[in-house]
Amino acid sequence: MNTMARMLNRRRAVLLAAVIVLQSLTAMFFVADVVADLAHDGALEDLHMGLEALASIALVGGILFLMIELRRVLSRMSMLETATQAARGEMAEVIDGFFADWVLTPSERDVALLMLKGIENDEIARLRGTASGTVRAQCAAIFRKAGVEGRPQLFSVFMEELLAGDGAPLK
Amino acid sequence: MTEVAATGAAQTRPRPAPVAVWDPLVRIVHWGVAAAILANATFIEDESLAHEVIGYTAVGLVIVRLLWGLVGTPHARFSAFPPNPVAAVRHLAGHLSGRHRRYLSHNPAGALMAYNLWATILGMGITGYMMTTPAYFGIEWVEELHEGLFAWLMISVVLHLGGVILDSLVTRVPLVAAMIHGKKPVEQSERTR
Known about the structure:
Chain B: This is Cytochrome B. The complex is a heterodimer of chains A (171) and B (193). By secondary structure, chain A is an all-alpha fold.
C-alpha cells in the first residue's frame, strides 16, 4: 500500500483517539456536575436540569459512537496491512518459482533479487563484497538462463506474471 | 492474551517484522495515566486544586480505557487478556524454567497488573473525592485508605516496571518501545489474528 496513505490513516487514527480522550474527560466533568446538582437540590423536571442531563447523555453517546468509529478505522488499516503483506508474500513466491525454474545458483539468486530491487551492478558488487566483473558475469548467466536480453526484459517476465495473475487481461 | 511463540529458539533468528498491537487510544491513556501518577506523586502539592484535577483526569482516562476494553480493538479488549491468576503464576514459573512465552496483548501476569493498577487508581479517585465531601471530610479512615492505596500504587508501579524490563529482556520483545509506537516484533508465521 501507498506509504503516504498509510501515514495519513495513522495520523487520522491518532487524532481520533486524542479527540475521544479529551471529549471523555469533558463528558466526565458534565456528568459529575449533573449528578452533583441532582444530589443537591435539582429535579429532572426543572428545564435547565433536564437539558443538562440530556446534553450529558448525548455527549456520552457521541463518545461511544466515536470509539466504534475509531475501531472501524483501525481494523480497516490492519486489514489493508494484512492484504499488502499477503501480496508481498505471493510476489516472493512467484519470484522464487522463476528462480527455481531457471536453476539459478544461490549467489545468482541473490544478484537477481538485488537487480529486481533496482540496484545497480556496482552497488550489488559493493553489497556482496565481490568484484564488479563477477557481478557482470553473474548477470550474464542470469539473463542466459532466463532467456532474456537484459534487465528490462527480466523485469517484464515478472510484470507479465503479475498482470496475468490478477485476472484482468491486458489489451 | 494471544500466545504467539515459545522458548529461546527465537533468539537466534533475525528480528521478525513488527505487528501493530497497541492502538493510539491505548497508548494515549497509558502515558496520560503514567504522567498523572508521576505528577501527583512528586511535585504537585497534596491538597492543591491541581492535585484534584490531575487525579480526576487519571480516573477519567481509566474509565475511557475500561470502555475501550469492551468495544475496542482486538488486543485492547478484555477478552484478549482475561484476569487469570493461575495462568499468571504459570507464566512467571515458565520464565524460571526458561520457557519465555510471547504474547501480542498483555501476558497473563501483565494482565493482572493492568487490572490491579486500574482498580487502585479508581479506589484513589473515590477516596480522594470522599475527602472533599462534607460527610467524609477529615474522617481518618478515608485519608488512611487514600494513603494506603497510594503506597500500594507505588509498589505496583515498581513491580510493573520490573515486569516490563524482565519480560523485554527474556522475550526480546521491547515492551516500552511497543507502548510508544504500538508495535511488537513477532514472526509472521506465529501471528494468530
